[in-house]
């Protein structure tokens, strides 16, 4: 019975206009991204520039970060991107004191001492940030001067304190623990560039490197598109006034909701698999042409554990909110969630998973970075899959309540408008 | 054993408003009519019987199965709501097939039952007609066909003839009578004619209370000797309408033939008449008003 | 006459726009917590306006036909003396007034927060973009009689712009002010008005029997 119902649901989706729109939009987006297919090049020895990278040297990261924090503190001028938009932060006295305390823990210097030490080793500069009205006075350390860090402060302790600083500033600052290495940028050497190139070839088998960026941008669309399928399905019973007839059938609420949900998820993932297949043909060929045997499972694997959870949770949220409110509110809620997920990872487009719905990996390569992100990514994805499951269970409960007449299955905001408008 | 529905001390509330007040009723095979004005509580009772509302206070059983066992009950009942509808882009056959699956029918059962039922409701030429293209009458017939797909012991039909043209209405009544040969059919209506034509047993609800429960014959008996007809001038009409319950008026030039309810001979020239169901119903309602 | 228009407008505000006004207000009020609204330079201000404030166009314009979504209500209103198109025009007028007030308010807020940008140009640019985003939704809603699809197209158009390069959508790319160019805004403004008009006309034709 479940299988038959599932098939019928799929058939219904195949007849719905929203579904074809879903496919068209997905393909359009895919195309717009595909057109800038990045080729990979073997670095040539003797080049002037191999690009830049972020240092993995913990002492260097700590040093650069501390230097930055001291100047930010003394200028009381912090920059943050809480959701990807620039934000200038000025702290009040109490919060500045908290920062001073943290600096004392790291350097051993009290505020007065710090100011005295820095005074001789810094200069005042004026920055305009292109805003004519607003010329900011900042303190800048002399290039050969570093703030000394106490020996008792190891990396772990340091990160913990920076977490506090980030919280005081309000999040999204240069001190956010997962992005702290951004403060330690350095040029890439020939050897490092070559390693990077070899990683793509031999560790990623080329295909994995491309599959990651595929997931990166398809994820952006999948964080919104399934909501339309879910809301359309949820509202269909109300639009057709079909709920009572369906309520009194003997099928359990679990079977009804689950068949609808799984049909929506499967129909949403199908075009993604197809697009993945199309791109895989291309990258497999590319790998062969570079003399590497491709990983044929790169795309299916990544779509499975990276993209599928997005579809699962977005669809589940759509089902839940539509069943609960009998309205299209789910679209606006998902719209907000999309906005926040996308913009909050804007300042870290490679290797950010965290708690984000849409993990970003907007680059071809950087195998090491991916390995570093992997455990976090898996935890994140499992978390969202569980959330999806909970939302589906909640939907079933809501549906069950409606069937028993304990929640309204139809609500028309406009019923009394008809009378009033006759005036 | 014949199917039997037993309702004991049923009270049902919508928020603070009491929709059903202490209903006691037993229903047996055949056609059962539930009569009452709009808002009398008919739909509430129907929804309780079809598990769409949870019983909070009282006891309802169908063949000794308590109504709270919704899974078991849903196997036994078929329900046609007041405004039956299905997904507009489904065809007649698809809609039946979909609801058949939801009702737990196997593929072979569906293949056998659906054409049979569509034949019965005269939709056998409309397999491919889309729900959105159907007239009100056709839709209602599809509704009845889906409601008996799983051959339920009890068929519950809410306001079945509302919005149908006279021809459709008669056809639909006959269809229901046919269905009632082998099961309980409960139909609610505020149109007295529906009951008169089809039902053996009836119950009358008013403001959530059961004010009559018995056969059509008993209802008629209750109004025996209380129905009069008279020819009055148009000028008198207003006065009579104010004083008596008038059940019908037929205008004839300057005069009008009126039927009215009265305990004794109302005025000279009025003649005693045999009550019909409509008269009896009006009598019943007027009696209740006076008791208050 | 005036009274009739007032009545139509009042009903629209009360039964249709009110929740959307609340959403719009909420969007504006949470802005300072999410992003900088003081001391921004021209490009940063443009980002706030183009990527955030212009979304108000979707909020206010797309639900324009929602009051008569239900066929029964639509027929009752249609049967009345006042032509349906007048209802639409009044609702459209109200939505645009709201947009102007909200965008103007936000821009002044930024301006007095010492942000540095050409107020007039940015106002027109943001309004043009909002009207385009909303107009796209209204146009689609007018064609398919389904608000979900209306929202879908507007929102996805925004997202596609977010994910692609400017040269891929010539003339109609949304986020140009943050790159220092206003030229596209003329196309967006005119395009938006055309879409709005087409949406109204299509809706009118669809239900005129």
From TrEMBL, chain A:
Q: What is an example of a GO molecular function annotated in this UniProt entry? A: ABC-type transporter activity
Q: Which InterPro entries match?
A: ABC2_TM
- ABC-2 type transporter transmembrane domain sequence ranges: 108-344
Localization recorded for this chain is: Membrane
Cellular component (GO) terms are: membrane
Tell me the keywords, alphabetical order: Membrane, Transmembrane, Transmembrane helix
Keyword Transmembrane in the entry? The reply is yes
Query: Looking at the Swiss-Prot or TrEMBL record, what is one Pfam family this protein matches?
Result: ABC2_membrane_3
> What is this entry's stated membrane topology?
Multi-pass membrane protein
Q: Which domain of life is it from?
A: Bacteria
Membrane-spanning residues: 12-30, 209-231, 261-282, 302-321, 328-346, 382-401
Q: What's the name of the protein?
A: ABC transporter permease
UniProtKB/TrEMBL annotation, chain B:
Instruction: Please name the SMART domains in this protein's record.
Output: AAA
Query: PROSITE patterns from the entry?
Result: ABC_TRANSPORTER_1, ABC_TRANSPORTER_2
InterPro entries tied to this protein: AAA+_ATPase (IPR003593), ABC_transporter-like_ATP-bd (IPR003439), ABC_transporter-like_CS (IPR017871), P-loop_NTPase (IPR027417)
Keywords on record: ATP-binding, Nucleotide-binding, Transport
Instruction: Indicate whether Transferase appears among the record's keywords.
Output: no
Q: Which SUPFAM superfamilies match?
A: P-loop containing nucleoside triphosphate hydrolases
Q: What is this protein called?
A: ABC transporter ATP-binding protein
Automatic annotation (TrEMBL), chain C:
Q: Which domain of life is it from?
A: Bacteria
Q: This chain belongs to which protein, by name?
A: ABC transporter permease
| Record's keyword terms, sorted | Membrane, Transmembrane, Transmembrane helix
Keyword match Membrane = yes
Record field: transmembrane: 17-37, 49-67, 88-113, 119-144, 156-174, 186-202
């Amino acid at each position: 019975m479940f299988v038959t119902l599932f098939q019928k649901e799929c058939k219904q989706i195949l007849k719905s206009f929203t579904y074809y729109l879903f496919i068209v939009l997905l393909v359009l987006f895919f195309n717009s991204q595909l057109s800038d297919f990045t080729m990979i090049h073997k670095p040539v020895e003797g080049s002037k520039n191999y690009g830049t990278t972020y240092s993995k040297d913990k002492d260097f990261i700590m040093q650069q970060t501390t230097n930055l924090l001291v100047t930010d503190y003394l200028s009381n001028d912090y920059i943050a991107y809480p959701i990807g938009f620039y934000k200038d932060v000025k702290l009040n006295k109490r919060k500045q004191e908290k920062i001073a305390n943290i600096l004392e823990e790291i350097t051993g210097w009290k505020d007065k001492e710090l100011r005295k030490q820095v005074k001789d080793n810094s200069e005042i500069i004026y920055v305009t940030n292109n805003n004519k009205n607003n010329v900011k006075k900042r303190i800048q350390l002399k290039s050969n001067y570093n703030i000394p860090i106490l020996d008792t402060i190891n990396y772990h302790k340091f990160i913990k304190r920076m977490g506090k600083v980030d919280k005081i500033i309000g999040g999204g600052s240069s001190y956010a623990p997962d992005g702290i290495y951004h403060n330690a940028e350095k040029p890439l050497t020939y050897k490092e560039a070559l390693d990077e190139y070899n990683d793509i070839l031999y560790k990623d088998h080329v295909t994995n490197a491309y599959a990651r960026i595929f997931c990166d941008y398809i994820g952006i669309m999948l964080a919104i598109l399934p909501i339309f399928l879910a809301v359309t399905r949820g509202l269909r019973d109300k639009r057709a006034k079909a709920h009572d007839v369906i309520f009194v059938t003997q099928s359990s609420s679990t079977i009804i909701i689950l068949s609808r949900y799984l049909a929506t998820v499967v129909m949403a993932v199908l075009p993604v698999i197809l697009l993945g297949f199309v791109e895989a043909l291309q990258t497999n060929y590319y790998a062969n042409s570079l003399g590497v045997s491709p990983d044929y499972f790169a795309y299916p694997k990544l779509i499975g554990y990276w993209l599928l959870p997005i579809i699962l949770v977005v669809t589940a949220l759509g089902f839940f909110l539509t069943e609960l409110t009998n309205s299209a509110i789910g679209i606006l809620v998902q719209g907000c969630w999309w906005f926040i997920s996308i913009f909050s990872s804007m300042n870290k487009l490679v290797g950010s998973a965290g708690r984000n719905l849409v993990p970003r990996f907007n680059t071809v390569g950087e195998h090491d970075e991916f390995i570093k992100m992997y455990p976090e990514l898996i935890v994140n994805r499992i978390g969202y899959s569980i959330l999806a499951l909970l939302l589906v269970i909640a939907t079933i409960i809501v549906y069950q309540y409606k069937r028993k007449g304990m929640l309204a299955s139809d609500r028309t905001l406009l019923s009394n408008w008809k009378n009033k408008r006759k005036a | 054993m014949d199917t039997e529905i037993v309702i004991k001390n049923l009270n049902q509330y919508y928020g603070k408003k009491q929709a059903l007040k202490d209903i006691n009723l037993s229903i047996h095979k055949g056609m059962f009519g539930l009569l009452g004005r709009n808002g009398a509580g008919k739909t509430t009772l129907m929804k309780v019987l079809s598990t769409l509302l949870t019983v909070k206070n009282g006891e309802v059983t169908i063949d000794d199965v308590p109504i709270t066992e919704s899974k078991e009950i849903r196997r036994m009942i078929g329900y046609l709501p007041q405004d039956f509808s299905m997904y507009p882009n489904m065809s007649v056959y698809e809609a039946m097939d979909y609801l058949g699956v939801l009702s737990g029918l196997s593929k072979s059962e569906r293949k056998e039952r659906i054409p049979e039922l569509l034949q019965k409701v005269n939709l056998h030429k409309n397999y491919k007609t889309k729900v959105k293209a159907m007239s009100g009458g056709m839709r209602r017939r599809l509704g009845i066909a889906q409601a008996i797909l799983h051959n339920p012991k009890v068929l519950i039909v809410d306001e079945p003839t509302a919005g149908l043209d006279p021809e459709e209405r008669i056809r639909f009544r006959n269809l229901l009578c046919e269905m009632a040969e082998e099961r309980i059919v409960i139909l609610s209506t505020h149109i007295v004619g529906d009951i008169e034509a089809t039902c053996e047993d009836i119950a009358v609800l008013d403001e959530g209370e059961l004010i009559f429960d018995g056969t059509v014959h008993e209802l008629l008996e209750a109004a025996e000797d209380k129905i009069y007809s008279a020819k009055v001038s148009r000028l008198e009409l207003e006065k009579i309408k104010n004083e008596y319950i008038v059940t019908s008026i037929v205008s004839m030039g300057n005069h009008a033939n009126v039927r009215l309810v009265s305990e004794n001979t109302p005025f000279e020239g009025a003649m005693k008449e045999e009550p019909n169901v409509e008269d009896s119903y009006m009598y019943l309602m007027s009696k209740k008003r006076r008791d208050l | 006459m005036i009274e009739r228009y007032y009545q139509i407008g009042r009903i629209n505000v009360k039964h249709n726009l009110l929740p959307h006004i609340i959403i719009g207000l909420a969007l504006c009020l949470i802005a300072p917590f999410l992003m900088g609204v003081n001391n921004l330079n021209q490009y940063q201000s443009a980002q706030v306006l183009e990527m955030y404030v212009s979304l108000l166009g979707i909020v206010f314009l797309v639900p324009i036909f929602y009051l008569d979504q239900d066929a029964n209500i639509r027929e009752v209103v249609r049967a009345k003396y006042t032509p349906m198109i007048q209802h639409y025009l009044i609702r459209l007028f109200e939505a645009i007034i709201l947009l102007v007030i909200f965008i103007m308010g936000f821009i002044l807020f930024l301006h007095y927060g010492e942000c540095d940008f050409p107020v007039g140009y940015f106002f027109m640019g943001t309004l043009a973009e909002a009207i385009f985003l909303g107009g796209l939704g209204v146009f689609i809603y007018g064609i398919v009689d389904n608000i979900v699809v209306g929202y879908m197209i507007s929102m996805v158009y925004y997202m596609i712009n977010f994910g692609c390069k400017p040269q891929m959508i010539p003339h109609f790319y949304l986020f140009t002010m943050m790159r220092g160019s206003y030229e596209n805004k003329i196309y967006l403004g005119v395009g938006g008005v055309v879409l709005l008009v087409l949406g109204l006309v299509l809706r009118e034709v669809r239900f005129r029997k």
